[in-house]
Amino acid sequence: MASAYPNSLYLILLCLLPVSVLSQTNKNITSGSSLTAVPNDNSSWTSPSGEFAFGFQQIETGGFLLAIWFDKIPEQTIVWSANGGNLVQQGSKVQLTTEGQFVLIDPKGQEVWMANLAGTGTVSYAAMLDTGNFVLASQDSTNLWESFDHPTDTILPTQTLNIGSSLVARYSEMNYSSGRFLMQLQSNGNLVLSTVHFPLLALNTDYWSTNTNGSGVQVLFDLSGSIYLKAKDESILSTITSIGASSSNFYQRAILEYDGVFRQYVYPKNDSVADGRPMAWSSQAHVPDNICMNITTQNTGSGACGFNSYCHLGNDQRPICTCPPGYSPLEPDNEMMGCKQAFVPQECDGGQVVDLFDLRELSSVNWWGGDYEYFKPVSEDWCRQRCLADCFCAVAIYNTASECWMKKIPLSNGVQNNVDVGTKALIKIRKDNSTTSIANSLKKQKSTLNLILTILFSSSAFLNLILSIATFWVVFRKRRITQPSGEIQGVGLRSLTYNELEGATNNFKEELGKGACSTVYKGILAIGNNNLIAVKRLDKMVTDSEQEFQAEISAIGKTNHKNLVQLLGFCNEGQHRLLVYEYMSNGSLASYLFGNSRPSWYRRTEIAFGTARGLAYLHEESTNQIIHCDIKPQNILLDDSLTARISDFGLAKLLKTDQTRTLTAIRGTKGYVAPEWFKSKPVTVKVDVYSFGILLLELICCRKSFDQDAKDENQMILADWAYDCYEEGRMYMLVQEDEEAIQDIEKVEKFVMIAIWCIQDDPLLRPTMKRVSQMLEGAIEVALPPKSPN
Ligand SMILES: *[C@@H]1O[C@H](CO)[C@@H](O)[C@H](O)[C@H]1NC(C)=O
Ligand SMILES: *[C@@H]1O[C@H](CO)[C@@H](O)[C@H](O)[C@H]1NC(C)=O
Ligand SMILES: *[C@@H]1O[C@H](CO)[C@@H](O)[C@H](O)[C@H]1NC(C)=O
Ligand SMILES: *[C@@H]1O[C@H](CO)[C@@H](O)[C@H](O)[C@H]1NC(C)=O
Ligand SMILES: *[C@@H]1O[C@H](CO)[C@@H](O)[C@H](O)[C@H]1NC(C)=O
Ligand SMILES: *[C@@H]1O[C@H](CO)[C@@H](O)[C@H](O)[C@H]1NC(C)=O
Ligand SMILES: *[C@@H]1O[C@H](CO)[C@@H](O)[C@H](O)[C@H]1NC(C)=O
């Protein structure tokens, strides 16, 4: 009996196998076959090698896309989609009808999309080929329709683009419908990249071209990783991108991405051929080099970034769109679609006082569109006053040649250009959003005082110790008397006198908190958005020299991101060193998260996104890389709209914490501190990734990383408990009493896995914050983290 059971099971398996094999790896898809969009159902039509598949892909934004994708890699990589990239609902069906049509129908039976056979015949069978081409063929095996002839944003090796063909960028990373950029082989033989008059596909401004008038006839992607433009006689006119990677060792694709850049990617088929490349898609070549600098015309349209936004390249050479100070993105969390003024603009009724507005400076930024007036030669002060007094002026541009331009809304084709350092943009913003908002903040201020106490000052025991050591170290150094300093050049930071700050804080009357090395006071000063400020007074001079202080302050002042607490000004006068910050009305994440009521799961995910973006910016996008070194809920503050804002960044270097890190055999428990602090290994940005991982777990579970009163001893250390739950496949345990989170368990599990990647002991295994941010937002898949921490 004991042996009969496995036998019968084997038989059942044998009976089942042929059916599923047929549906998975069929070569010819016959008339009457269909696929239905069902969640977590992986049925698809795969190519004989299994590398490509055709079917429905579930998209995170909700819905299904009829698509072709790379099927042997974990990342969701769609290379073609039907129906203009528009999603369909669960229950939709794609079918090769007995009448020989290939149609997509919605759950109500309405036809949504159909392969356009242009009357060439009826389809007898379909096939997913190993090249990634999906074909519909007639009885006599002639191809009536090929996905290769109807590309979306991607081309694959062996695919060609002929005269008139184009690739259209998708709208955003996760929205596959058509976006703002197009690549076209034009009838004049030129291959061009162009912006379009969105939402139409009509061409607007070319920003790259092969300049092959009258000669180009075909673009070819060959098997050795080169993309050429060829002439009629087959000669090569122009190499568009070339990376020399064989298609037998690498998966390859080239895509016009949603940021307007055409990039060629490879993915090693296995470790042995990777040759040092990561086991992931990596971009190996792209055109144009710098899209920000290539779209600088006065043409209509919004350029590389949307209206009022400006474009600059990040460390990875990808364009980044940023809203100027006082402006916010039109689409939340998508700065590529432009920005709007986040304040009531100046009215032109003549009755308004000029001092309601102020100018914020952005160095090396210019908008190429939006000019309406030009003055030369004038002084910067004249240019500033002129803009403040002119209700049409939204931005003034001033340069070292004493030129001054007035620009109006909408601003277009904004660029931050590191070559043209003499140019600065003066952005006009309302000083105090409105009088009522000030009154409200003042009313709120008593009740939030307790919250604030914990804000700028709640240093962990760890940082306190470091600060004391730093102070100790400094006390033995000769004090210097410094002169009152001037502006810090090129940074929109106000240099304030000690007297001014004494006045603003009413002689340092209201103390908000005290740390090992500094004290924070509340103040009122016409400098921030709502006039309320937090003034941090460094008790001891902890920096080495005047220049060093200036340099660090300047580095902190250059950062500008919606997820950072903005440094507004400073005072450096004699022994007095003070930093002036925006005042955050909603206190710290620590009190929000560990307070009496549990914040909603949605809020917590938003805070995770915001913190990750802020850190990615500090690590990768700010002019000087900044390692925070003390990420924890006490250092994440929440503004009026509960957006996460990282505080105290840049202080690690200013206070020289890194010099003392070898003295820190402090914690037996897993706190926020990465293990390499305790070893003599170099401290890199990955220490922040570690701390973020712990913070993310706290956000998921709404509890502290260390909880002495935990129900169970195993649950005392959150990181260990999360690991246990992950290893046992019971991640829901972490959010057991949280109905909302349970409803969204897939995201909870994803977040836990991301957190586990972040707290790997080996810093090299931890992802970068940029990658963390992309994983959180669903732009890239999350691989399974290693099971055991060590
Ligand atoms: C697919 O069908 C066509 C026409 O019936 C036939 O010629 C071809 O050999 C079939 N291919 C495969 C791989 O079955
Ligand atoms: C589909 O794939 C996912 C992950 O790739 C897997 O977890 C799931 O079990 C699969 N479902 C089926 C029905 O094969
Ligand atoms: C994608 O973007 C388009 C254009 O803005 C919009 O109409 C559509 O609703 C978006 N689709 C999804 C799934 O968000
Ligand atoms: C290509 O044609 C355009 C007009 O269609 C013309 O302006 C341009 O000078 C030509 N370029 C070359 C290289 O012939
Ligand atoms: C790796 O891939 C190459 C090319 O596909 C193949 O020739 C080789 O056998 C593979 N090696 C391993 C270890 O799978
Ligand atoms: C855009 O940049 C490329 C370099 O990537 C340059 O060769 C080309 O001339 C530029 N095109 C335009 C239209 O400015
Ligand atoms: C300023 O106030 C307006 C309405 O009075 C509001 O819509 C806007 O969001 C506020 N902006 C900021 C930056 O607080």
Give a verbal description of the structure.
There is one protein chain. This protein is an alpha+beta fold and 790 residues long. Among the domains are: 136 residues, Orthogonal Prism (Agglutinin, subunit A), CATH 2.90.10; 136 residues, Hepatocyte Growth Factor; 89 residues, Phosphorylase Kinase, domain 1; 188 residues, Transferase(Phosphotransferase), domain 1, CATH 1.10.510. The protein has 17 helices and 43 strands. A hairpin with a 7-residue loop joins strand 38 and strand 39. Helix 14 packs across helix 16. It binds 2-acetamido-2-deoxy-beta-D-glucopyranose (7 copies). The site of one 2-acetamido-2-deoxy-beta-D-glucopyranose (NAG) has 6 residues, from loops.
Termini separation (Å)? 44 Å
The set of bound ligands, ions and cofactors reads: 2-acetamido-2-deoxy-beta-D-glucopyranose
Q: What low-confidence regions span 5 or more consecutive residues with pLDDT below 50?
A: 1-26, 434-490, 657-670
Can you tell me the CATH topology of the domain at 589-776? Transferase(Phosphotransferase), domain 1
Helix content: 10-25%
Count of individual beta strands = 43
CATH superfamily (homologous) name of the domain at 589-776: Transferase(Phosphotransferase) domain 1
How many whole angstroms does the radius of gyration measure?
Answer: 30 Å
Q: Summarize model confidence as the mean pLDDT.
A: 82
Biggest sheet overview: 6 strands, mixed
Question: In DSSP terms, counting alpha (H) and pi (I) runs of 4 or more, how many helices?
Answer: 17
Structural class: alpha+beta
